[in-house]
Amino acid sequence: MNRTISVHRVLLVLAALYLVPTVVAAQEAAADSSWVQLGEVVQDTLYVTRSKVVTLALQQNEMLAASGAMTDAAAADAQGAWRAFLPQVSINEFFLRSDDALMSFGSKLQNRVVSPADFNPALLNQPGETNNFITRFQAMMPIFNGGSGINGKKAANAMSRAAEHQHVRAAETVRYNAIQAFEGLALAASYEKVMEAAVRSATGHVRQAQSLVDNEMATEADLLQATVYLSGLKQQLIQVRNMKAIAGENIKLLTAIETPLPIAANLQDDPTSKLSLHGRFDLKAAGSRSDIMARREQANAAGNMVGVATGSMLPHVNMSVQRDLYSMDNLFGSDAKSWTMGVYATWDVFRGMQNIGEIKKAKAQKRAAEHMVDFETRQARVQATEALLTARAAHEKVIVAQGAVDAAREGLRIVTNQYREGLASMVNLLDTQAAAIMAEGNLVQARHDYQVGLASLEFAGAARLDRAAAESTTPIADQVR
C-alpha cells in the first residue's frame, strides 16, 4: 500500500512538472493578444494575411508613430507663431543693493521716502548702502513689424501642412513596405513548395535509379548523378527556408510584434492577394501625391520667409504698459507704486547689408524650392509610368510563365517514363527536371512581381479611375490614360 501511494505521488509530481511550463506558456500566449491581431496560430506556426500585416503595421509601426509626433510638433510651431500678434506679458522681480549716490537717491524717490534731510550734501555724496526691491508687471503689444509676423505665421502654417502630407506619405510608405514584406514571405513560401516538390521528385529518381542499378539496367553513374542532383536541391530548399524565416522577421519588425513562433503566409480567403489584372489609371494624378504636396507647402513656406526677411528691414512699432511695485525692505513689497505706458519705434538701420543678404538668401531658397517642386512633380509622373510598365510586364510574364509550367510538367512526365523504359538517359531526366523547376520558379516570381507591381503603382500615385473597370476584359496595357 505504501509503495502504491509513493508511486502515485511520483506520478503526480511528474505530471505537475510537465504541466507547469505548459500552463505558463499558455498564459503568456494568452496575455500577448497581439498575436491574434496579426494572424492565427496553427501547429506552432503563426499564419498571417496581407490585410492584417498592413493593418497592424499602420497601427504599431514606431517610425510612423514618430512621423505623427513630428506632425504634432509642426502643428505646435504653427500655433506658437501667433506670438507675433499677441502681447508679451512678463513678471519680474529685481533686488538692488548699492552705495552709488545716484542709485541710492533714485531708490528713495521710487519708494516715495525722500525727506529734507536727504538733500544734505554730505548724505547725497555718501549715502551708504541702500536696498531696493522692484516687482514689475509688463505687457508689450506689437503694433507693426513690417509684415514679419503675418508672413512668419503663414510660413509656420505651410510647414505644418507639409508635415501632415509627409505623415500621410509615411503611412503610404509603411503600407507599401508591409505589402512587400508579406509578398516576400509569400514568395519564399511558394518557392518552398516548389523546392519540396522538386526534392520529392528527385528522391523518386534516386530510388528509380537505385532500382535500375540493382537490376543491372542502369549504370552506377546514373545513381551518382541523381544523388548529387538531389543534394543540390536540398541545399536550395535550406536556403529558401532561411529566406522565409528572414521575411517573417521583417514582418515582425514592421508590425512591432514580438513572437518566437515562425511566421507563414496565409493566402486563403485573402482578397488583397487576388487583385484584378485590369484597371484604368491616371498617371497625371502622381503630381498630387502626398510627398509632392508636402514639397509644395515647403515652397510656400520659403516664399513667406522672403516676407519675413523683408520685414526685418522696416521699422517695428510696439506699445508697452508697465506697472512697478517698490520696497526697500520686503521682497514683493508694495510700499510705492508707479505705472508707465509708451510706444516704441525701432529701426535697425545699420544692419542694412545683413538684411539685404537675408532677403537674397530667402529668395534663392524660394526659387530652389520651386525648382524642386517642378522636378519632383515630373519625376513622380515618370515613376508612375515606370510602375505601370513594370506591372504590365509582370502581368504578361504571369501568362507566359503559366504556359511554360504546363509544358514543363508534361515534358517531365514524358521523360520520366522514357527513363524508366530505358529510352532516355539520367542526364536528360535531370535536365528536364531542372527546366521544370525553373519554370515553376519563374511563375512564382512573376506572380510576386505582379503583386508588388500593383502595390508600386499605387505607391507611385497613379489613381485608379474606375473600380468597376477592374472587372473589364481589357488588359492593363490598354487601360492607360
Description of the structure:
It is a single chain. With 481 residues, the chain is an alpha+beta fold. The protein folds into 3 domains: 1-30; 32-61 and 152-299 and 363-478, Outer membrane efflux proteins (OEP); 88-144 and 315-347, Outer membrane efflux proteins (OEP), CATH 2.20.200. Helices cover 64% and strands 13% of the residues. The protein contains 11 helices and 9 strands. The strands form 3 sheets. A 4-stranded antiparallel beta sheet has the order 3-4-7-8. A 3-stranded mixed beta sheet has the order 1-2-5. A two-stranded antiparallel ribbon has the order 6-9. The radius of gyration is 40 Å and the shape is elongated. Residues 1-31, 269-275 and 467-481 have low confidence and may be disordered.
Which structural traits does this protein have?
481 residues, alpha+beta, Outer membrane efflux proteins (OEP), 3 domains, four-stranded antiparallel sheet, 11 helices, elongated, disordered N terminus, disordered C terminus
Write the layout of secondary structure elements.
Elements: H1 2-31, H2 34-38, E1 39-42, E2 45-48, H3 50-60, H4 62-80, E3 88-98, H5 101-110, H6 121-125, E4 130-144, H7 148-214, H8 220-255, E5 263-265, E6 281-282, H9 290-311, E7 316-327, E8 336-346, H10 352-420, H11 426-459, E9 463-464
Parallel strand pairs: 2-5
Antiparallel strand pairs: 1-2, 3-4, 4-7, 6-9, 7-8
Helix pairs in contact: 3-7, 4-7, 7-8, 7-9, 7-11, 9-10, 10-11
Tell me the name of the CATH homologous superfamily of the largest domain. Answer: Outer membrane efflux proteins (OEP)
For the record, the count of structural domains works out to: 3
Total of DSSP H or I helical runs spanning 4+ residues: 11
Proportion of residues in extended strands: 5-15%
